[in-house]
Amino acid sequence: MSPSGLLRGACRTTLISLLLVCCLLPPGAQGQKFPLRVEPQNPVLPAGGSFLVNCSTDCPNPKLITLETSLPKKPVGNGLGWAAFQLSSVTSDSQVLCSGFCDGFQMTASSDITVYRFPERVELAPLPRWQPVGENLTLRCQVAGGAPRTNLTVVLLRGEEELSRQPAVGEPAEATVTVLAGRDDHLANFSCRTELDLRSRGLGLFQNSSAPRQLRTFALPVTPPHLVVPRLLEVGTTWSVNCTLDRLFPASEAQVQLALGNQMLNPAVESHGDTITATATVTASAEQEGAREIVCNLTLGSDSREARENLTIYSFWGPILNLSESSASEGTEVTVTCAAGARVQVTLEGVPAAAPGQPAQLQLITTERDDRRNFSCNATLEVDREILHRNRSVQLRVLYGPKIDQAKCPQRLTWKDRTTNVLRCQAQGNPDPELHCFQEGSWNEVPVGIPFTVMLNYSGTYSCRAVSSRGTYTVTVVMNVQGRNAHAVTIVMVVLVTLGLVTTTAALVYVFGLQKRSDIYQVNQGSTWLPLTSRKPEEAVGEGPS
Ligand SMILES: *[C@@H]1O[C@H](CO)[C@@H](O)[C@H](O)[C@H]1NC(C)=O
Ligand SMILES: *[C@@H]1O[C@H](CO)[C@@H](O)[C@H](O)[C@H]1NC(C)=O
Ligand SMILES: *[C@@H]1O[C@H](CO)[C@@H](O)[C@H](O)[C@H]1NC(C)=O
Ligand SMILES: *[C@@H]1O[C@H](CO)[C@@H](O)[C@H](O)[C@H]1NC(C)=O
Ligand SMILES: *[C@@H]1O[C@H](CO)[C@@H](O)[C@H](O)[C@H]1NC(C)=O
Ligand SMILES: *[C@@H]1O[C@H](CO)[C@@H](O)[C@H](O)[C@H]1NC(C)=O
Ligand SMILES: *[C@@H]1O[C@H](CO)[C@@H](O)[C@H](O)[C@H]1NC(C)=O
Ligand SMILES: *[C@@H]1O[C@H](CO)[C@@H](O)[C@H](O)[C@H]1NC(C)=O
Ligand SMILES: *[C@@H]1O[C@H](CO)[C@@H](O)[C@H](O)[C@H]1NC(C)=O
Ligand SMILES: *[C@@H]1O[C@H](CO)[C@@H](O)[C@H](O)[C@H]1NC(C)=O
Ligand SMILES: *[C@@H]1O[C@H](CO)[C@@H](O)[C@H](O)[C@H]1NC(C)=O
Ligand SMILES: *[C@@H]1O[C@H](CO)[C@@H](O)[C@H](O)[C@H]1NC(C)=O
């Protein structure tokens, strides 16, 4: 048998004896004349305590004053009309009964003992680690022990705000309340408190509180994050990958993982208001070539959202366009090669290579017309149904010359004295030749290609030389400068005019003489004078070579 069982047994015997006493007493007993008092009356005591009970009466000759109780008792004194007992180990509510006799009549009186005790345990059940905003949260508070239960209340609190107040019922007592979690509840502290109100019994209001529990709420929309990635990414290039999501709460607590294939990226995460943005830079490596998946996994609270995008990592090497000689002498063979990476189709000067990945080649014997000729190579690569183009061009230099184009350099020139003329001669070649024309004998130089005034002494044979590091090319030009003889012309004119005048005069004299004799005369109006014309010097006339 447990000690409480023993106690209950003791209680039962006390009750039986009380009933017996009551039944044995005749109704309206004379003992009532001198009532028996029990002190204290209906006390409220802390559990486990001890206290003194005094049974007293005003009866002049009382007898056998005793105390009936299931509690351990010890007489502590008595006197005329009283007896006091010390009761100890008061653990539960009980009743004590004083009895005695007065003039042969039995007297009785009782007192109810109420035990109070604080709860042993007040505990708020653990909260979810993360509570979604907009969902109901049930707070549960458990209270073990605590008496008297009729005066024990459980209060559920958010911070200092009372959410619910309910009596403690059951053992352990459980109080619950359901609240709709909101953003305001993020980081709020929830707790529960018991109140043992014994103020009506002359004692205080005793409170016991649970440890607070902090709630974290979150809001994560059902939509997946927005992931911006290029569809194609070339090996060696760097791109930024963005993953964003809106309407998050609290955005600063969100965590973002970005992975390319099985490589974790290291995104920089920023939150502004309700929006989170994770940006990572990706440098595609050769090992990752092929179809890859990029995953953005956003975790907030107890939930996560993810977005996936496919991208293709490719390498596009080339085209590399090579000349066997970038500067070749005229007449030599030059090979043009265009090569590119595997799977790349190259087309050199419009002629495609045999197969993708193969180089394209072309050979030529250089002529001067090939100097500065551009060769272009076009490379195409198909990646994920998209065709990428790339081209290169290279310029060939052909070393030739020096030479003088005879068509552009007249070899016979006839010019008038003191006129302005241009010696039009051109030299070709790579490297560019220098062209100079010198008069044979005097070695006087005449300018080439720029206007100059010719003199009579310019007449002669000229040697025009084009000179480059590759040699010399000479063309002979004969220049004939004619004098004007202006004085002689004037004399001839004067003689001719005088001659004309003399002839006319003679003729008139003769005609008048005849007319006087025949009375008929006629004047011939037809002019016989010679016109005097000044002729401009003729332009130099170039004589073309044969
Ligand atoms: C018990 O009560 C009587 C009468 O009121 C009093 O005289 C006596 O001193 C009390 N005894 C104790 C121990 O308080
Ligand atoms: C939350 O609980 C209340 C009743 O306590 C109910 O009316 C409401 O529909 C619940 N809300 C949600 C989102 O479950
Ligand atoms: C305490 O309990 C008693 C007895 O049940 C009752 O009469 C009293 O009103 C209660 N007081 C409070 C504050 O609940
Ligand atoms: C909740 O409690 C923690 C620590 O006990 C405290 O730092 C925090 O400020 C409290 N929160 C609120 C909203 O009072
Ligand atoms: C309950 O509160 C009382 C005072 O109100 C205190 O003496 C007691 O130690 C508390 N109990 C616990 C378990 O904290
Ligand atoms: C990614 O975000 C950064 C900063 O917000 C922005 O500068 C960049 O243009 C974005 N890139 C793409 C591909 O959207
Ligand atoms: C996203 O990340 C979280 C935390 O790292 C993980 O628990 C979850 O399984 C991930 N989700 C997916 C689909 O990979
Ligand atoms: C990515 O590729 C896989 C298989 O190649 C395909 O099943 C999936 O739908 C693609 N995802 C997207 C977002 O295009
Ligand atoms: C092009 O020339 C470079 C050096 O001049 C050489 O390393 C390379 O192999 C050549 N490429 C081809 C395709 O001929
Ligand atoms: C060759 O290309 C260069 C620039 O790459 C250009 O300046 C030049 O005119 C081109 N030559 C010819 C003959 O097209
Ligand atoms: C390169 O070739 C493709 C097709 O082979 C053609 O569409 C494109 O115009 C070419 N580009 C050049 C610059 O020749
Ligand atoms: C080569 O490609 C560039 C752009 O990719 C283009 O601007 C250029 O015109 C192309 N050159 C030739 C010769 O097609």
Automatic annotation (TrEMBL):
One protein family per Pfam: ICAM_N
Protein's membrane topology: Single-pass type I membrane protein
GO annotation, cellular component aspect: plasma membrane
Signal peptide boundaries: 1-31
Keywords from the UniProt entry: Cell adhesion, Disulfide bond, Glycoprotein, Immunoglobulin domain, Membrane, Phagocytosis, Phosphoprotein, Repeat, Signal, Transmembrane, Transmembrane helix
Places the protein is found: Membrane
Keyword field contains Repeat: yes
Transmembrane segments: 488-512
Domain Immunoglobulin positions: 40-116, 323-399, 410-478
Lineage: superkingdom: Eukaryota
Gene Ontology MF term list: integrin binding
BP GO terms, sorted: cell-cell adhesion; phagocytosis
Described function: ICAM proteins are ligands for the leukocyte adhesion protein LFA-1 (integrin alpha-L/beta-2). ICAM3 is also a ligand for integrin alpha-D/beta-2. In association with integrin alpha-L/beta-2, contributes to apoptotic neutrophil phagocytosis by macrophages.
Assembly description: Interacts with moesin/MSN.
Family, as annotated: Belongs to the immunoglobulin superfamily. ICAM family.
Record's protein name: Intercellular adhesion molecule 3
Organism: Panthera leo
